[in-house]
Design brief:
299 residues, 7-stranded parallel sheet, 9 helices, alpha/beta
Length: 299
Amino acid sequence: MTKQTVLVTGATGFIGSHLVKRLVADDYQVVVLKRSFSDTKRINDILPSLVCYDIDLCGIEQPFQDLGKIDAIIHLATFYSRDQKNLSKMFETNIAFPMELMKAMVKFGTGIFFNTDTYVSKGQSPYSGAYSYSMSKQHFRNWGEQFALNSKIAFANVSIEHPFGAGDYDYKLIPYLIKQLLNNVPEIELTSGEQKRDFVHVDDVVSAYALLIDKLSRDIPGYQQYELGTGQAISLREFIEMAKALTNAKTELKFGALPLREGEIMFSQADIQALTRMSWKCVQSLEERLGKTIEAEKN
């Protein structure tokens, strides 16, 4: 059977790096759109197996022209910032760039576009804690739905809850907490921790994408929505206390020392029925996944 070709943006990031490794292992031809100055440390071990294009040095249609038919696009690249000075970059990365990709998709007959969305943009109104980012994700999702309708393409929107796992960015909450606990710092100041999140391990995120790529038809146009998480939210406090127990830290967790952000999302949980109907499920418990992440950090 002819090897299928999948184009991926955001392949040098946390989720993207895990996904392209899985795609290579599953024998896809993987095309990566990155920038010439992107840090490829997460994927250096598989770079020879990838077809890479530096999007700042070539036109967006170049991969399509060079490779012929591309079967699917997985859009993971995103720009997050709370700083209003970065609005132009946010618009370019989160809206304009994927719009150009969809135009190329229509022109060259790519089968399906997978858009990676986030739980902070699930509501009807943008999340006030990251208003511009949330709005940009909502706007592109709406454009994707419109493209699917008008251009007769398949567009699958995958809304991920709160991913975690080995290789995440150090500045994010979970990697930061794990490092602090492993270092057995005297104390960590925290909010009340009452906000509930659906924490999902990156391996489960990748397995869901692998299933969707394999199962979804490229020949049936339309918009499809998938929420990706465990389907079970727990409080941030429970999660942090679990991490403390798994690290055997003596650190004092000072819940309530910090205020909640204005407009904080207090509850978010994925509705995973669409995925479970396709026989997808998380293969390990949250505690097992967190333990695995902690062990990876130790090494």
